[in-house]
Structures are given as C-alpha cells and as structure tokens.
C-alpha cells in the first residue's frame, strides 16, 4: 500500500497526532512537541495549523537503504531531502529537524548534507553515539561516533539479571569500540552551523598516469580513466592482489582533499591505501581501507586532512572477497574552493 498517495491515511495520521498533541498539552504547555513526518510530505493537505497547534516541529528520517552502495543514490537522497524540507519549512512556517539518517560510507555526502541543512536553517542531530557494527556493514555503522563493538551479547532469554548486568557493565566505550574519527570530525565541523565550500576538480590535462598493469592493450590503457568518458575503462585484467596500483603525477604540486574513482560494475577495490609523494620515490600514507569488501562502484577516498603533493598513489592492500578485476572508468581528484 502506498501511504504517500493516500489522503485517508494522512487524515488518520494527523488525527492520531491531534490526540498526542492534546494529551501532552493537557499536562505541559511549555515544551516543544516534535512529530515525525512519516511517510512523506507530498499529501499532507490537512496541515496541523487547522488544530491550533503551537510550539511544535516536524522531524524527518531520510534513508535509501536498498541503494546503500550507490554514491549517486545517497547524494540524490541528501539533495532531495534538503530541497523538499526547505520548501515545506517556508510554506508551512514550521521548524523542521532531521533527527535520524544515514548516508552510509560516503563522508563527503555527510559533510555536504549537514552544510546544506545549515545553509537552509534546518535543524539536525547525529542520532547515534555508539554502533555495534563496522562502518562497512549493511546496517550502516558509520552513523555512530564509536563503532565496531567487540563485546559479547548477553542471552536475554536465559542469563540472570546479574549476568546481563555484568556483561553490559564490562562494555566500556574506550575499551570495546573503535573511535570513528572521520565522522566525529565532520559532525563537529558543522555543529556550529557553518557551511562548506564547493569542490573543484583539478585539471587533468597535465597529468601523467601509470599503473602496475593494464589488460588487453591497446583496449584498456590508463589514459581511459581520465578521458572524460564513463564508457571506457582501464583494467588490470587479473584478479585483485596486494600491490596493484595507479600512480598520478600532477606535473606540479597541487592541493587536494578528495579522490573519486568510478568503476565498471563490481570491479571496485576491496581494500586500498592512498599515498602521496613530493618526489615520486618517498611516499606517505594518508588514507586506508583495509576491510577487503569494498563499498560500491563510485568510491570517494578522503585523506584525513587536505594534502599538498605532486604524486598520488592508490594501491590495493589485498584481494576483493569476490575476486574481481580492478577497473577504473573515471578518476578525478578535487579540492575545496575556499574562495566560493
């Protein structure tokens, strides 16, 4: 049943909200009342001002779970959420908040989303402090400040109260979770209401790109990954193994803080590292994903901080779990335009 296209459902929902509002106001006339706007806004024809509500706001929980590996789908979700909520907030003159959401593995989209919410005066909250799973598991452990729990679950059906209490008491954040520093940094940067600057792609025309191997030359040369065509690709032609690499020589020192790899089908890395160099000989690691499962055909590799270098090297640190080749249709490297 499509609730979003059913006005009768919308009337039922707001009738229920009326009861909640009146019950709360019977005992509390001071605090703000927050309602979740499920499923969506598009048939909310009977808006709440009809009931004389005051001091309230709506909360939205945007997700695109089926497309958790798609950068494009998550970016579209973020953009659509902001544009729709901004229009609703202006039309209804009601404050809105995003109180629960997950954009999975795409840290650049997280930052853009929070920045755009701030820009449109839409409130938000990062809703989860600790998450049991890793940032790469299907539940989206990247939404927590701490994740990757190594504790044991209590048996709620058979353990005694004392046993359950002892298990949970021993699960201390600092000892049993990994700190999700990149996510903490993004949320902290936008918590003051600030906004970011747009990304600008570096000019690829001066680049020299080499790779550890290329398959079926001249049909898959490295030049295909910077030719501006998503229909061409460079490929290793063999299963992913540790040490396979792509090396970019900018021709001069460049500032950058974002690397975008667009892959062919499932031929994306299972694990990788990003290194930089000033001379092409001595390299320093600036990013690492050593999970061996990969996270989608459009991958964004973010160094821990903005970098300045002449050379960028992307190397595989192990095989992919499904033993795919590594292919790249497009490689772009970007920086934040601090001049707007």
What is the strand arrangement across the widest sheet?
9-11-16-13-14
Strand content: 25-35%
Q: Residue-averaged pLDDT, rounded?
A: 87
What is the element string, with H for helices and E for strands? HEEHEHEEEHHEHEEEEEEEEEEE
Shape field:
globular
SSE blueprint:
Blueprint: H1 7-27, E1 33-36, E2 56-60, H2 71-92, E3 96-98, H3 107-119, E4 123-124, E5 128-130, E6 144-147, H4 161-169, H5 173-176, E7 178-179, H6 181-190, E8 199-201, E9 208-211, E10 234-235, E11 245-256, E12 258-262, E13 272-277, E14 283-289, E15 298-301, E16 307-316, E17 327-328, E18 330-336
Parallel strand pairs: 1-2, 2-3, 3-4, 5-6
Antiparallel strand pairs: 6-7, 8-18, 9-11, 10-17, 11-16, 12-15, 12-18, 13-14, 13-16
Q: What can you see in these coordinates?
A:
With 340 residues, the chain is of the alpha+beta class. Helices cover 23% and strands 25% of the residues. The strands form five sheets. Strands 9-11-16-13-14 form a five-stranded antiparallel sheet, with no helix packed on it. Helix 2 packs parallel to helix 3 and helix 3 packs parallel to helix 6 (181-190).
Short structural summary:
The chain is an alpha+beta fold. Helices cover 23% and strands 25% of the residues.
Name its key features.
four-stranded parallel sheet, alpha+beta, 340 residues, globular
